[in-house]
Amino acid sequence: MTPGTPRPRMDDLTVERVLRVVEAIPPGRVAAYGEVGAIVGVGPRLVGRVLRTWGSGAPWWRVTDASGDHPLLARALPFWEAEGIVVKPNGKGCRMRDFGADLEELRAHSRPALAELAAAEQRDAEREDAERDGTASEDGRRG
Known about the structure:
By secondary structure, this protein is an all-alpha fold. The protein has 6 helices and 2 strands. The chain has helices spanning 12-23, 33-40, 44-54, 73-83, 96-99, 103-133, and strands at residues 31-32, 63-64. Helix 1 packs across helix 2, helix 1 runs antiparallel to helix 6 and helix 2 packs across helix 3. It is elongated, with a radius of gyration of 18 Å.
């Protein structure tokens, strides 16, 4: 990170955005941490941190490093075998050219879930503004 560059926050919205993109990776395909991060707008290390902390309910085994290697291959292997992902000869992961997700397709499949989050964030911000202004009714709407 360069000096003066704001560090991305790992807030609830960022966590949810990462998890939703990971959930959109099709079975039998993988995406690199950096590819997931590019869709979300965060770096690969933050993607890894989100998965390590909150990813147990998401298909974490579908996220690899840029060369297709998986840091938890022994744990990922049963999932890979069930989905038809083959380990490459070096035994560290899979071949991205064979099993990498189509990034445009992944971006398109992620778009509705990310838009839903953005809309919810907008509603929350409007509700907070209304509450701060004292113009919110009991149900949180202006009125």
